[in-house]
Amino acid sequence: MAGEGWGGHSGRIVIVGASLAGLRAAETLRAEGFGGSLTVVGDEPHPPYDRPPLSKQVLLGRVRAADAGLPRRRAVDARWKLGVRASGLDPVEKRVLLADGEHLPFDRLLIATGTRARPWPQSDEARLDGVLTLRTLDDAARLAERLDAGPRRVLVIGAGFTGSEIASACRERGLAVTVAERGPAPLVGALGGTLGAFAAKLQRAHGVDLRCGVTVTALRGSGGRLTGADLSDGTRIDAEVAVVALGAVRNTEWLAGSGLAAGPRGVACDAGCRAFNMYGIVTDDVFVAGDVARFPHPLFEYQMLSLEHWGNAVAQAEVAAHNMVSPGPRRRPHLTVPAFWSSQFGLNIKSVGVPTFSDQVVIAQGSLKEGRLVAVYGYRGRVTAAVSVNRAKWLEHYRTLIESAAPFPPPAGAADRPESPVPVPSDVPDPKVLSHGPTVALTGHLPDRRLAVVVRQNG
């Protein structure tokens, strides 16, 4: 049997996913003394690379896509299977099945398959030359090349963080850009109504042709090349490049039939990164980390969170790797407060906590008018998140308030002269009304929409 002889620091570990979480987990395993066989599987041909620069420096031509590799913290003695997709998991025989026909036996498995860009739903339109997504190294190289060619107009479909960063890069290059967003404002799915309205003004002030409350009903082409798009309000856009920024799809299809609690929202695990099976029973040999994981967090009512955040991938990978080689009493939980950052239109936006887990928001420092501020979010009278715009040095203070469940709204400090100290509803929209997805998915209930479904079974 594949699991015989497992001793924590020997045996066979397989990591499926050769990106940030997979690399940091492999490094942590070796740092913690794992001396057994280690295999890392990745569906892309490239060694692990950094994704945040792809929508920022790479699109601005400051960094080549090929130079976005991740620095190695330490040597990792591993077998790298790159450019090969995992096609299945046999949990009984404890084997990962690969698309090239190889079977990889394991004693411990880490699932770190992340996400991929959600494609344009009409496949014939998606194949038009000029229709692109942005998720991978190759995607970024292709898009940068198109922007270098100086298209007359770029259409960005979706105004989440990726879509907004692409629009920002286009304007910085002097390119005309139209952004189409189904929801009421950019970034509203991640930051709520107040900062969504701020982001809309910001984009328009920088010359973005921002269209909210509309969908792209069709992409048009001629001779196999994109020429433009039709919008739901009856208008037409002429564009040579369209970037589809409709959020992410979690890479879980290869786990169909594995018996794990895996689906479109990710792979469910406990706070120690151990995967649940489909009956809610925790496994002891399969672990999960990074964007593909759904995990409970005590600060957010033990809701299952899915995070598309760089810092979360690193922290969760380190916890998962530690727990894979540690006996039960020495295992630790993944309790990091979520954090992310974005650079767009000359502003540095940073967040701690979960802004969507809120019912109210207050501008605690600075003002929307001056574009330097800290917005603090609360739920049922306690602080749950903070977002800074060009004022990041204060976030550590708010992280402490979140971790200690401090009362909301927070008391004003002597240096604070907030423009509007009165909390207002945070206006977090239902994700169904957005074309961009939130970077934090509360995969249980939304705080202001409590709904219980009771299924009665006869017999």
UniProtKB/TrEMBL annotation:
Cofactors required: FAD
Pfam families: Pyr_redox_2, Reductase_C
Domain Reductase C-terminal: 340-416
Domain FAD/NAD(P)-binding: 12-317
Highest taxon, organism lineage: Bacteria
Region (Disordered): 409-440
Keyword field: FAD, Flavoprotein, Oxidoreductase
InterPro entries membership: FAD-oxidoreductase/Apoptosis, FAD/NAD-bd_sf, FAD/NAD-binding_dom, FAD/NAD-linked_Rdtase_dimer_sf, Reductase_C
PANTHER family cross-referenced by the UniProt entry: APOPTOSIS-INDUCING FACTOR 1, RIESKE DOMAIN-CONTAINING PROTEIN-RELATED
Protein name in the entry: NAD(P)/FAD-dependent oxidoreductase
Organism: Streptomyces celluloflavus
